[in-house]
Each structure stands twice: as structure tokens, then as C-alpha cells.
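Structure record:
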Amino acid sequence: MLVIALCCFGAGVAMVHLVRRFGGPLAERLPQPAFISVTATAWALALGFAASDVFSLNGMADRAAQAERSSISRLAGMAAPEALDRPEMQRTISDYAHEIMSVEWSTNHNRTASARANDLLQSLRLQIIAMTGEGVPEVLIGKTITDFDELQDARGIRLALGQSVLDETRWYLVFALSILTALNIGMVHAGAPRAARNALAVFCCALFMCLAILGLTADPYRTMHPSLLITESALAPLALT
């Protein structure tokens, strides 16, 4: 982020020297001060759209993590001894939660799926199907299927959001308009080099602070801890195994 701000400052200062060195009288070549708004407005809009995208991703990531945690908790509660008493299903859910935490979240940064997590989901699916021939009430089977489907959906959303972090195209427009705005500031203030440097310093400081703050939150999972997936009471005993 600092490199980008320094590049913009350097580009603006270079524009000041180029305009002053080449061409005729400055009064005839310098644009009006209001011309800065042409690129500055576009830069502000692009930065605002990028910020909105970042904050939106963070909100969706929070909701997806909460949904996945809730689904894991409900499935674990359904398989508990005081409910359906299915220890194999409970172990599968526990293994899935720990696989998500240790591999998909911590190692893969929620950008690629774990093959073992896929296998555990398939095993859980087969166990739910097997319940149909074991005298389990259809209402409970239907509820378990619903929870299982919601678990898969929440996981898919989590991985999709992790993949979206890799898409940097939204920042290219911000960087391009930052350079153009710095060049514009340098051109408009070419008649007063000190004023140009002051204006560029203010602009580049604002650019650095905005990009630094957005950079800290660009990855929605950076500030989340994977252990939140097993903090529900229904999974508390499994978290200790």
C-alpha cells in the first residue's frame, strides 16, 4: 500500500516537472483547478465500490460461518445419546468439524475444499439414508436432511467467499485512477510546485490510509478463528476429543 502511495506521489511530482519544462507559457497550458474533479470523483467512486465489496464479503462470511456452525450443532444434537443415539454419526460430525478447522480453514484459507471433508459429508449422507430402514420417525429424518443440506450450502458459500478474495480485478481500477488523479493534481498545480507537493502529500496519505484499512479486512476470514465452528454447546464434548 505504501509503495502505491509513493508511486502516485512520484508520478504527480514528475508531471509537475514535465509540464514546467516542456511547452509554452504555463498560463495557456494548465487546466482549471476544477478539472481535478474529473478523475478524483471517479477515483472516489471506485474506492467506495471496492470498500462496499469488501464490507459486503465480510458480512456474508460472518453469516456463512454462523450458518455452518448452527448446522453442525443441530446435527450433533440430533445424533446425541439423549436424541437418536447414533455415535457413528456423532463421530463423523466431529471429524468433519475438525477437518474444516485444521485443513480447509487453517491450511487452505477457505479457498479450496478438503477431499476428506467431502468424504465425511458423503459418509454422513449415507448414514442419514440408512436411518430410513431403521424405524426412525420420518419427521426426524426430514429434519436431519434439512440440517445436512443447510450444512452443505453454508460450506459452499464459505468456500466461494474464500475464492472471491483471490479476485483482484476490483483493485485494478482503483490503482489506475489513483495514478491518473495524482497526474491530474500535478498538472493543475504545475504553476506552484510547492502547492503541488502539498496537495500530492495529502492525497497520497489519504490513499495509503484507505488502502491500508481495506487491506486489513479484504480477507473476511483473516480475523475469524476456525474454532468458532465448535463453540456450540452440542459440540462442546466433541471439541475435547
Q: What stands out?
A: Residues 47 and 181 are 13 Å apart (CA to CA). The chain has nine helices and no strands. Residues 59-165 form one domain. Confidence is low (pLDDT under 50) at residues 237-241.
